[in-house]
Amino acid sequence: MRKHFMLTLNKEYVTQPPPPSLSFSLSHIHTHAHARTHIHALSISHPHEGMMDVVNQLVAQGQFRVLKVPLGFIKVLQWFFAIFAFSTCGSYSGLLRVAVECKNRTESDLNIEVEFEYPFRLHQEYFDAPTCKDGSRRRVFLIGDYSSSAEFFVTIAVFAFLYSTASLCIYIFFFEKYKENNKGPLIDLGVTGVFAFMWLVSSAAWAKGLSDVKTATDPDKVITMIDACNEEENRCREVHDPVMSGLNTSVAFGFINLVLWVGNLWFVFKETGIIAPFMRAPPPEQKAAPDAYGQQGAYEPDPYASNQGGYQPEYNQQGYNQEAEYGSRKDWD
């Protein structure tokens, strides 16, 4: 009986809910811990949100509509074609193959590879060719150094890319300061003119340099530099020509950049405001009001004016004169 009573008390104690004061303290501790966790999360994500706010403000303040007008749109084209120009030239690497068949077939080499790449210092590129004598080989160097024209072309393209990037940033985010005091357009006009001239010089120089590179890497000319090929008993032939399409494209991009920069001179010049006084429309001519009396030339007096306008009737001509006559007759009677 006593054990049953103790078990009953234990069950009631276990199943009894906690007092209100204890539950309030537990909930308060839980809420406080949750708030501290939330504040800690906010403090961790705050720098990221701050950077996003700065980016959003810059985007909101940007005047992207300038990219729709020729001044900004051509600058975007200059940015793209400058990338194409220096990437097609600066990343080029070529390969040609020739075969040398000696009289003694065991000494032949049917796959001689000659590699070359930007900046086209060909005098540093070499390959080993068989001499067809005692199994020995001789090192042969290519001829020519065309690095000056290639590096000049790539340098102008890289600087044009950097300037186009800076100009686009100024057009989008600082266009009002760009037009302030007319200094920005004047500087932009001068730099654009310099780049237009540099594109002309660098593209022409690289076109000539590319022609020389093609000649120096022609397999027929490379074969003439191999001593074994100058002997009639041996036979030499080309196996693979170098692919020059990428370099041809770089020259094309260079002249396209020239056209873009020369064409952009006009739109930058318009921003300077120098031509504004000469583009004003002439004031309209003031025409005299039409004169009813002067439509046929000089004023001519109306011939009927003296008879109609200035006519005043004489009332004594008819009625009054007759009464006078009648009155005189009465007097006679």
TrEMBL record:
Q: Does the entry feature the keyword Iron-sulfur, yes or no?
A: no
Task: Give start and end of each MARVEL domain.
Answer: 66-273
Give UniProt keywords alphabetically: Calcium, Cytoplasmic vesicle, Glycoprotein, Membrane, Phosphoprotein, Repeat, Synapse, Synaptosome, Transmembrane, Transmembrane helix, Ubl conjugation
Q: GO CC: one term?
A: synaptic vesicle membrane
The UniProt transmembrane annotation reads 76-95, 152-174, 186-207, 251-269
Family per record: Belongs to the synaptophysin/synaptobrevin family.
Record's protein name: Synaptophysin
Record organism: Oryzias javanicus (Javanese ricefish)
